[in-house]
Amino acid sequence: MSQLTYGQSGVNYDQLDAFKRACQRAAATTTGALKQHGLSEPPAVRGESAYLLETPTEYLAHVEEGLGTKNLVADAMLKATGRSFYRNIGIDTVATIVNDLVTCGALPVSVAMHAAVGDSSWFAQGTRGTDLAEGFAEGCRLSDAAWGGGETPALRGIVEPGAIVLAGSAIGRIRPKTSRIRGDVRDGDAIVLVASSGVHTNGLTLCRAIADRLPQGYLTPIGDGRAYGEALLDPSVIYVRLVATFQRAGLKPHYAAHITGHGWRKLMRLDEPFVYRIDALGTVPAVFRFMIDGGHVAQREAYATFNMGAGFALYVDPTDVARCVELARQGGYVAWRAGTVRRQGTRKAVEIAPLGITFEAETLQVR
């Protein structure tokens, strides 16, 4: 059986990213409207994970994000086992929003939910509606943010009758302004990776395509005592308190990246050209080992698509590494020095040395 790619499963980043770049160009023409509000747009924020507005005393941050198709795995597992995983899905939805927000140093203030269904009866079927609400609230609590509201449209003819499309937004603030994570990466900086809990919220379309090929589908054992579907539905790690801890301790990363779409290619999200060399991979969760060892996905494709056990990246001065890792440990996170940033002229790349995998600049075109 041939190995699958994300493109074969139906996700073409070249097409998605081209639209994102078009949106950024169009959006830039609207920036002048901020003046009437006494606000401004800081340079080079478009193409980053969060949009910033500068006020005289602080930065305000805004993020809009979607869960993707992870809830379809929850639906399949509910049908196969009778067990609802929608509490985890609620946490995931918040996590994918706030983890983008904190990359600039903003701490979330309020999070909103957008839950579009094909039929309003979705909310009346079993406990999944209340489970989703409880999970979303828990995600907000783990983010030290208020759940501010949302929207629940019934979109018959657009959304399938038995499905829900989950997304949301968040606003945050950076105060004082010196807490902003700007992208001040330097030659010789250390790359500190922070562990994920598993798939988180990206690459689920490929995960679902793999399930379709397995004789037992989502119930296939993956070698750690659990089924494939259960492992896919572990809730995402929320990194808000990690960033807040660094701010209280006076430790300021030069840059931060939420490792979601594009996998480890996201390590070179910063516009400035650097080579990001990884020497220590960390622990790869069982669900990813199952995909690769079972021949379902090539190793390079996995690192180009999934977080592979590292959900967040911090770029810090080498003298701050030990403190960074210790503060993470104290907060219940697992972090390790994974590599080093190097300046090699105008070259921009991610080199995963232990695996002999390299992603050059042209593989990530998000701006």
Describe the structure in brief:
The protein is of the alpha+beta class. It has helices spanning 13-28, 70-81, 86-101, 128-142, 204-213, 228-232, 240-249, 286-293, 299-305, 321-330, and strands spanning 51-54, 59-66, 107-117, 146-151, 164-174, 190-195, 255-258, 275-278, 310-316, 335-342, 349-352, 357-360. The protein has a seven-stranded mixed β-sheet.
List strands and helices in order, with pairings:
Layout: H1 13-28, E1 51-54, E2 59-66, H2 70-81, H3 86-101, E3 107-117, H4 128-142, E4 146-151, E5 164-174, E6 190-195, H5 204-213, H6 228-232, H7 240-249, E7 255-258, E8 275-278, H8 286-293, H9 299-305, E9 310-316, H10 321-330, E10 335-342, E11 349-352, E12 357-360
Parallel strand pairs: 3-4, 8-11
Antiparallel strand pairs: 1-2, 2-5, 3-5, 6-9, 6-10, 7-9, 8-10, 11-12
Helix pairs in contact: 3-4
Task: Characterize the structure shown.
The protein is of the alpha+beta class and 367 residues long. Helices cover 30% and strands 21% of the residues. The chain is built from 10 helices and 12 strands. The strands form 2 sheets. Strands 7-9-6-10-8-11-12 form a 7-stranded mixed sheet. A 5-stranded mixed sheet has the order 1-2-5-3-4. α4 links the parallel β3 and β4. The radius of gyration is 20 Å and the shape is globular.
